[in-house]
Write a structure and sequence with these properties.
By secondary structure, the protein is an alpha/beta fold. It has 24 helices and 22 strands. Bound molecules: adenosine-5'-diphosphate (ADP) and magnesium ion. Magnesium ion binds next to helix 10.
């Protein structure tokens, strides 16, 4: 139950005065774009901050106004010229002629309602108008003024107008009105920040801070360093750190177990492995072993670039758990990946006679019930699967180790929460991630989790040659593939992320597929998110077996597919992908012994950051370096890359700009929990409000379940 002071903030925007169905639709589109059906709420409006500021101070005369700037002018309406205008018979926009003592000016309206315009701008009346001044055919024009008011209505025209990101059909004025209504709903909330710390930073209260964020008075008020922004960013980071700290504490509190083994199974597996472990793999395993053998619960992140060999490490850790008499499970983010893990782990694990099974959403009926029974009886040592593993009715005889193959797809704290309540409670936890996460972000996504890094690639990998090629030279690229394929090479062709929409991504991939198929015939396959699991597998198997030479896909292959023979990666519209994603995709090749290449096809002209991104890709393959560059390039405001990389998305806080605040929030969260382990005392009430406000209330549920 959300505390009642916040109820008004979590109502849909429709509850605001002046927001009818039309505006509601637009606000849904603007504020909740990730789920088409989702409703924007009042709080979403409050988090929607201005990105600019317009000065609407009145310009004395028309001749003093500068073309291209926003001008606010006092004028007299002289004439209406409904569509047509100067040249007889020509159809055109509706124009309204206005003037002052210095010059004349045309207000230009496309598709306007004449009745409305006659009422807004009666001939002979004086009006205050504001908008962008342009020049066309030697005429001064103001197309679609932002504001038109009677002179005595000057008070309603803001002198400094905050400018918000908009969506087609929604104008700044309508949005500002809705935000003003939302601000009026903001209750005064008890302070959750330590008073000393707040005073030291000269921060306003939460409500004041939000009001100020929506009423900037200077450009500097829009920067991450503005006090109001700092305050709310800190709130958000504190909520994040507190939630993670609660989860970690829950997990740590449960007694772990000693999973110690003599290493028999592990030796059997190692003896049959076709390679020796890298130094990094050996180090990571030693760290994991120490955790497993200690009575404390393991809570460890295994970080390693694509291809760094995390699967084998996970298998060897699971072998230890099994030898110690427990069961282990490996959870993958997709069915495809779960199957792939099954294959690898069965192969490598064969030497140790491990009993391995697969559980995804697809197993049904007797197959499933047989599996469920075997699991409960302890006839299965290692269960590999998707989140289906944590469904109702799935019980282990004795689950000792949970490995979550994160692949940067899940909201981590949700996963951890699931672990804490689900059938994995009491089990040791290892999370693997292929996203090389910069240290700052590590803290925001995993809290104080212990981490092992696989920062060394298996030997013998050849560097991947990365080239950037403009789309209009696609023919050369295809010709190159033709030669390579004739020589037995295999290629991935990843199609653009058109929108965050499966349907559109699908259409783009389908079109490219048709084109390549016309050229290469049945050597081309297509996978995308809309294919049924079985069909997807069929295509993947065909590609892995070499029956297909070219695999066209949307970004579904991003996640961990392993086809060592594939040596060419084409990424179409590479400029639309984030660095983390480009890096992940490129990591699909360069896994075998062949020379590999990656071609980043882009549409010119490139934006400054897109150029930088592609440059970074050309310069380096080091995932940790790329991650740091990514963070720098993205800067605070740009969330797109963040969203794509699956890292937690902050609405207000931006990293690295607020890094110092993040550290402070972590320390504060620790202190709070050290003082009041259950957040039960009266002093914790404001903190609970904070968690609800930023929707980290799964932490609160967890404490209750506790
Ligand atoms: P990740 O999951 O980290 O992306 P994988 O575990 O899939 O990487 O390993 C990538 C490939 O490298 C696999 O084919 C695996 O068999 C191989 N591999 C793993 N460790 C080594 C090693 N020490 N030496 C050589 N090859 C290795
Ligand atoms: Mg892997």
């Amino acid at each position: 139950m959300r505390p009642s002071p916040l109820a008004a903030l979590f109502a849909t925007v429709r509850s605001l005065k002046g927001v009818g169905p039309k505006v509601e639709g637009l606000l849904n589109k603007l504020l909740a774009p990730r789920q088409p059906s989702a409703h924007a709420r009042v709080i979403d409006l409050l988090w929607h901050l201005p990105v600019g500021l317009i000065d609407r101070a009145i310009t004395p005369r028309i001749v003093d106004a500068r073309i291209g700037d926003i001008a606010t002018l006092e004028v007299t309406v002289t004439e209406h010229r409904p569509g047509g205008g100067r040249r007889r018979g020509a159809r055109g926009p509706y124009r309204v002629l206005v003037e002052d003592s210095s010059a004349a000016l045309e207000l230009v309206y496309f598709n306007a309602d004449p009745v409305y315009l006659k009422r807004l701008l009666p001939e002979g009346s004086k009006r205050l108008i504001s908008g962008k001044l342009e020049s066309y055919d030697g005429w001064l024009q103001m197309p679609h003024p932002d504001h038109v008011t009677a002179i005595d209505g000057a008070g309603t025209l803001p002198t400094l107008e905050p400018i918000y990101p908009l969506t087609a059909g929604l104008n700044n004025t309508v949005l500002r009105r809705a935000i003003a209504e939302a601000l009026a709903r903001l209750p005064s909330l008890p302070e959750w920040i330590d008073e000393g710390f707040r005073a030291q930073n000269a921060w306003p209260s939460f409500a004041e801070a939000l009001s100020r964020l929506h009423a900037p008075e200077a450009e500097t008020d829009l920067l991450p360093s503005a006090p109001a922004r700092g305050r709310v960013a800190y709130d958000e980071l504190l909520a994040n750190q507190l939630a993670l700290a609660v989860i970690r504490q829950r997990l740590k509190k449960r007694a772990g177990r000693r999973l110690a083994a003599r290493g028999k199974l592990r030796r059997e597996i190692l003896a049959k492995l076709p390679f020796a472990l890298t130094g990094a793999q050996t180090r990571a395993l030693a760290e994991i072993d120490a955790d497993l053998a200690s009575p404390h619960r393991m809570l460890r992140l295994l970080q390693g670039d694509v291809g760094s060999g995390k699967t084998v490490v996970a298998l060897l850790a699971m072998a230890t758990a099994v030898e110690a008499g427990a069961q282990a499970t490996l959870m993958a983010p997709t069915e495809l990946l779960a199957r792939q893990h099954l294959k690898t782990i069965s192969e490598f694990g064969a030497a140790a006679d491990l009993r391995i099974a697969l559980l995804t959403g697809r197993e049904r009926g007797s197959e499933r019930s047989g599996l469920v029974g075997a699991l409960k009886e302890g006839h299965i040592d290692i269960l590999i699967g998707t989140h289906a593993i944590f469904q109702e009715g799935i019980a282990f005889r004795d689950l000792g180790l949970v490995v979550i193959d994160e692949q940067h797809r899940f909201g981590v704290h949700q996963r951890l929460a699931l672990q804490a309540k689900g059938s994995g409670s009491g089990a040791e936890l290892l999370v693997t991630t292929a996203t090389p996460i910069p240290r700052t972000l590590l803290l925001t996504s995993y809290g104080d989790m212990d981490a092992s890094r696989l920062d060394e690639k298996p030997p013998g990998r050849k560097p991947i040659v990365t080239r950037t090629v403009p789309l209009d030279r696609i023919e050369e690229v295809i010709a190159g593939i033709e030669r390579a394929v004739a020589g037995g090479a295999q290629a991935y062709w990843v199609c653009p992320l058109v929108a965050e929409s499966e349907v559109l991504d699908f259409a783009a991939a389908e079109a490219r597929y048709a084109e390549l198929r016309a050229r290469f015939g049945d050597k081309v396959g297509l996978v995308h998110g809309r294919l049924a699991g079985k069909d997807k597998d069929r295509v993947m198997v065909a590609f892995a077996s070499g029956a297909l030479s070219i695999l066209v896909s949307t970004t579904v292959i991003e996640v961990g597919v392993d086809v060592p023979r594939a040596s060419i990666m084409i990424i179409e519209h590479a400029e639309r992908f984030g660095l983390a994603q480009l890096h992940q995709l490129r990591g699909r090749v360069g896994r075998g012994t062949a020379e590999s290449s990656c071609i980043l096809l882009y549409r010119a002209p490139l934006s400054e950051t897109a150029r930088e991104r592609l440059g970074v890709m050309r310069r380096t393959e080091d995932g940790f370096l790329i991650a740091e560059e990514d963070l720098k390039l993205r800067g605070g405001g740009q969330l797109l890359g963040t969203r794509q990389s699956g890292l937690p998305l902050f609405r207000i806080a931006s990293l690295p700009e607020h890094e110092a605040l993040l550290q402070a929030a972590r320390d504060a969260a620790r202190l709070i929990l050290a003082r009041d382990l259950e957040l039960k005392g009266p002093e914790a009430e404001p903190l609970k409000l904070l968690l609800y406000l930023f929707e980290r209330d799964d932490a609160i549920k967890l404490m209750r379940a506790g």
